[in-house]
Design goal:
It is built from 28 helices and 41 strands. With about 1000 residues, the protein is of the alpha/beta class. The strands form 11 sheets. The protein has an 8-stranded mixed beta sheet with strand order 1-18-10-13-9-2-3-4, sandwiched between helices. The chain has a 5-stranded mixed beta barrel with strand order 30-33-31-32-34. It starts with a helix and ends in a 6-residue tail after the last helix.
């Protein structure tokens, strides 16, 4: 054996012994076939594995698997304790010092040479369609300057302004390090002294398989490695010697930013000064979130410590919490801009647990045991990253400082095919900011004319005032470069926006010259009419046997409900009243009786396992999707887990879902009607809707709100009818008259025929200031589509483009909406092309859509049920409003020509049935004495007697009776929770 072979065998034996101790000997399975260079590379990667970290992460995955507690549950627990953070607000409030004090202290810090900058630039521009380091991306609206140049020139400008060098510590990644160094060398660091630019490279992190046990290999000679997250900055800075070097140079504080935000206010003196005035060890800059689910991290306080909860980890119910004035409770959105004391970082760098690893279930390409390449279609491994904001709770004192987003936040994260956080929106933000600076200095920038200011010409509004002459008119695209103003020719096809699109996700006005969200949204006419064939009678059926079940006979089957102060009245009327009710000579009270409450129906396995069947043939037809997955807890005790409100007859006659089906009878044939529900309700719904094919009733394995259900139904229908138009409607609405409803649906279909890219919804004209409904604000009327031969269609109702959606408001705000006359209640009924809603989900919820596509692809396969369980459970719950409607453009709202009631509580029954002279609404056998404004529901064979009640709800069922004050109706949900807490599942 040669000396080289001996050394190789020695290295293999040493590495194999190490890997056996960690259970990772498979990493050396291909050693003998590798070249010496490949062996050296693999050996270095293996030696870089920290055994303690590997054991810790494997143990975490084992515990998570054994306990069944997922990351979502942990974040939900933390989110429940989250409070707004200690913060300096934009107006200077929230702290004991003033903005002026902060600016003065910050300027002193910079002039004293106590500040350095950390710039994180390890990412590639892959999502932008740019295969170089993101810092090399050309972002200057007129100059084409790269992100690196924008940051470097800002830093040079700040150094010049304060008369002191500000060193730069630039973090790269293995994927960007060499290219970045070469790019900066070729451009001479854009004027920064070489001694002031210190480049260091972050580490990489391996991935564990689905079981959380084995490290995956990318090739026979390499582990699968990815960056260890922006939190890897701390270890990389310390390992490179940068931390000690900064301390030796007298640097006391680091200003931290990320390369993808060209509006970052480099070394902002107000932020730095606030950090000093508050005695903070770590300060973070935030914006006020403009929407509950805006895709920024949430800066919060938990048990007195500052934390960041990512938007994807914060459950919607907590994200939507509001203060009494209607403002968001958790308002602070993370900008990834921080100020950190060097001493604090040095202390944290000594702690191995300072920054925990976050696990993410991802699709990771790898090789199998035979060396064959595997490209997984589903998440197959756990990747791990550290986040720098996890240092916040370790700080002895932390501070949050609010910034104006127009001045500090324009991230470049998505391609120009998206609506927000794109190169186009970042350029627009830069133009808007520089336009404002020039106008405030006394110049006039003509409308729609783009301008760009290089910070070496003027780095602040004050410097602009000293450079521009008042009265100057700028009517051509102008770049203010270090050498002066230059007129720039902008090609017509250049996607430079003339103004900044509204960043608030709910605003509907499109950015200038921005195309519809995705290519599949096209304006081609359907190949066949979308409205169903001629009218037919809605199907009817006999009630199943269990719906006419009789209760056991009793001598007296009655319930008395009276206030305590009416107790003495019992002797005066009980016996005469009963005698009168039993006497054949006296006519019994008139009773409106609902269908008797059926017994629970056990889930039927045959129903659960059924896969959706193909849709009826023929392109471009109208299909119906009935959403029937709600629980209706506020209708307890009539509603139960296996008998929610949509399966109840709440107003006498048909059940809610049967009435919904009847409403569609003249529009959509049953073979093109789908029901999306929960798995345990497939059987009961099939019993109530026997005319619907069993394969068209899709049972979801768990609750994930409306967006996944709508997406899955669209995928299933589009398989056989790619041009399908869908009407999506809940199963728990009361709507009259049916003819007006059907006319409105036909109108929506006509709009979609003319504007296939539009999503159409229906707005209910508010009759009072409701606090429990969402609102839609309308814009201008939408253009009327042209019919055959150029004839305008005659609309049934006014239709408008949607300006924005509004959350459930406080009463005072709701009153303003009603008074304005331009707001509607959000009905939750939609009409759209299947391909349009799928394109919107692809744009805004790509991960959700990927899971849904996997389910749709498994239809007809033996493992369909297991795929449905796995993929659907992996989706984050989200409503279609929050997933799509509040972001999408264009949305059209039709003013509903029908009466509508979202049956959300027992009081809806009173609105549907009306009331007697005393204001009482009763279904079943009821006798009321001195009873007013009450709601009573019982059966035809059980008498409920009320004496001296007002504003009361009484609901009797065979095994439970509810008596509640009407004002406490919302708290019925608490009753259901209390029953569950007591373990009384037989009543749920």
């Amino acid at each position: 054996m040669t000396a080289t072979g001996t050394r190789s065998q020695t290295a293999k034996d040493r590495l194999l012994a190490l890997m056996k101790s960690l259970g990772q000997e498979h990493l050396l399975a291909f050693w003998d076939r590798l070249t010496s260079e490949e062996r050296e590379q693999l050996g270095k990667q293996i030696e870089a594995i920290d055994p303690a970290v590997l054991r810790e992460l494997r143990e975490q995955r084992r515990k998570a698997s054994a306990s069944g507690v997922d990351e979502g549950s942990r974040w939900a627990e933390l989110s429940a304790k989250a409070q707004p953070p200690r913060a300096m607000r934009l107006d200077g409030g929230g702290v004991s010092f003033s903005k002026e004090d902060a600016r003065r202290r910050g300027a002193e810090l910079l002039r004293g040479g106590k500040v350095a900058m950390i710039l994180v630039a390890g990412g590639l521009g892959t999502r932008l369609g740019f295969d170089q380091p993101k810092g090399m991306y050309p972002i200057g609206p007129l100059s084409g300057r790269s992100l690196f140049q924008v940051f470097f020139e800002q830093l040079k400008s700040a150094s010049r302004h304060y008369g002191e060098r500000i060193p730069l510590y630039l973090m790269t990644s293995p994927a960007t390090d060499e290219t970045t160094r070469q790019f900066l060398r070729e451009n001479s660091n854009f004027g920064l002294p070489a001694d002031d630019v210190r480049i260091f490279c972050q580490s990489t992190m391996w991935a564990l398989d689905d079981r959380g046990e084995q490290i995956l290999m990318e090739s026979p000679s390499s582990l699968f490695l990815g960056p260890d997250g922006h939190g890897g900055m701390l270890a990389a800075l310390a390992k490179s010697g940068g931390l000690k070097q900064a301390q030796s140079a007298g640097i006391e504080h680091f200003f931290y930013g990320q390369i993808d935000n060209p509006l970052t206010q480099i070394c902002d003196e107000r932020l730095l000064g606030s950090h000093i005035c508050a005695g903070s060890e770590m300060t973070t800059q935030v914006i006020r979130k403009r929407h509950p689910l805006e895709r920024v991290g949430n800066v919060v306080s938990i048990d007195g410590r500052t934390h960041v909860i990512e938007y994807s980890d914060l459950p919607d119910e907590f994200a939507r919490q509001t203060n009494p004035d209607g403002s968001l409770k958790l308002w602070a959105g993370n900008l990834a801009i921080h100020v950190m004391a060097v001493e604090f970082l040095a202390r944290c760098a000594k702690r191995s647990d300072a920054l925990p690893f976050h696990a993410a279930h991802k699709k990771v390409p790898h090789i199998d045991a035979s060396g064959r390449k595997v490209e997984p279609a589903l998440p197959n491994a756990y990747r791990f990253e550290r986040f720098i904001f996890d240092l916040l709770p370790l700080a002895r004192q932390a501070l949050v400082v609010e910034a104006d987003p127009a001045e500090a936040f324009a991230p470049v994260k998505n391609s120009n095919f998206d609506r927000f956080d794109t190169p186009r929106t970042a350029k627009a933000a830069m133009i808007a900011l520089h336009t404002r600076w020039l106008n405030e200095a006394g110049a006039t920038v003509a409308s729609g004319v783009p301008v760009e200011i290089n910070p070496l010409w003027a780095g602040s509004p004050d410097e602009v005032r000293g450079r521009v002459q008042a009265g100057t008119v700028i009517d051509q695209p102008t770049y203010f470069s270090p050498t002066g103003a230059q007129t720039v020719e902008v090609p017509p096809e250049d996607p430079i926006p003339s103004e900044l699109p509204a960043r608030e996700p709910v605003v509907r006005e499109p950015p200038p010259r921005e195309p519809p969200p995705r290519e599949p949204i096209v304006r081609e006419p359907p190949r066949e009419p979308l409205v169903a064939p001629p009218p037919r009678e809605p199907p009817r059926r006999e009630s199943p046997p269990h719906e006419s079940r009789e209760l056991p006979a009793r001598e007296i089957n009655a319930t008395f409900v009276i206030p305590r102060d009416h107790e003495l009245a019992l002797d005066a009327w009980v016996e005469p009243t009963i005698a009168k009710a039993e006497s054949p000579k006296v006519e019994s009270p008139k009773v409106e009786s609902p269908q008797p409450i059926p017994p629970p129906i056990a889930p039927q396995p045959a129903f659960v396992a059924s896969a959706p069947r193909p849709v009826a043939s023929g392109p471009g037809l109208l299909h119906a999707v009935i959403m029937a997955g709600g629980s209706g807890t506020r209708f307890w005790p009539a509603s139960r887990n296996d008998r929610p409100k949509q399966l109840l007859d709440l107003a006498g006659g048909r059940t809610m879902i049967q009435a919904t089906m009847d409403r569609l009878g003249l529009l959509v044939p049953v073979e093109r009607t789908w029901v999306m529900t929960s798995r345990n309700l497939v059987g009961p719904i099939a019993e109530q809707l026997p005319e619907v094919d069993l394969g068209n009733i899709v049972g979801e394995p768990c609750k994930r709100d409306t967006a996944p259900a709508i997406g899955l139904s669209a995928l299933l229908i589009a398989r056989d009818d790619p041009e399908a138009t869908l009407v999506v409607l809940p199963s728990d609405h009361l709507i009259q008259p049916v003819s007006a409803f059907q006319a409105a649906i036909r109108q929506a279909v006509a709009i979609v025929q003319e504007r296939p890219e539009a999503l159409v919804t229906f707005g209910i004209k508010p009759t009072y200031a409701a606090e429990t409904f969402g609102y839609i604000e309308r814009a201008q009327p939408t253009g009327r589509p042209m019919g055959g031969g150029g004839r305008q269609l005659d609309y049934t109702s006014p239709a408008f483009d949607v300006l924005r959606f509004r959350e459930k408001p406080a009463r005072s705000v709701a009153e303003q909406y009603v008074a304005a006359g331009t707001y509607y209640w959000n009905s939750g009924i939609f009409v759209w092309k299947a391909k349009t809603i799928l394109a919107a989900l692809d744009a805004y919820e790509p991960q959700m859509l990927a899971h849904l596509k996997t389910i749709a692809d498994a239809v007809g396969q033996p493992d369909y049920t297991s795929v449905l369980d796995r993929e659907f459970s992996a989706i984050h719950a989200k409503s279609i409003d929050f997933a799509v409607m509040e972001y999408y453009y264009p949305v059209v709202v039709i003013q509903a020509p029908f009466t509508w009631d979202d049956v959300g509580s027992w009081q809806a029954m009173a609105r549907a049935k009306g009331a007697d002279a005393d204001g009482n609404t009763a279904i079943g056998k009821h006798l009321g004495i001195r009873t007013a404004r009450s709601i009573i529901r019982t059966s035809s064979d059980h008498l409920v007697v009320t004496l001296g009640l007002s504003n009361t709800i009484v609901v009797h069922t065979p095994d439970a009776t509810l008596v509640a004050d009407k004002s406490q109706e919302e708290a019925i949900r608490e009753v259901v929770k209390a029953l569950a807490d007591k373990g009384w599942s037989e009543y749920l």
